[in-house]
Specification:
With 89 residues, this protein is mainly alpha-helical. It is built from three helices and no strands.
């Protein structure tokens, strides 16, 4: 049981790191949104989005993670990022 607790603590630490990384990504998305707004660029860039998803799927497969899982996660993150990009500072 002690080993299980140790492993769960490690997962908890990784979850915290993931949250911090997502916060950094959101901050960058907000800055990118401001730049796009100033330059009159569209928030949504489907071509870039599709390219990112394709690349990350390949990376996931190389390291043994489900490409579908990564795509699902990234689509959700990208959707949220667009929301933050639309916010004006």
């Amino acid at each position: 049981m002690l080993e299980l607790l140790k492993l769960r603590k490690k997962i908890d630490k990784i979850d915290t790191l993931l949250l911090k990384l997502l916060a950094k990504r959101i901050k960058l998305a907000t800055i990118i949104g401001e730049i796009k707004w100033k330059k009159g660029l569209p928030i949504c860039e489907r071509e870039r989005e599709n390219k990112i998803l394709e690349l990350r799927r390949k990376e996931a497969q190389k390291i043994g993670i489900s490409a579908d899982l990564i795509e699902d996660i990234l689509r959700r993150i990208i959707c949220e990022s667009y929301k933050y990009e639309q916010k004006k500072i």
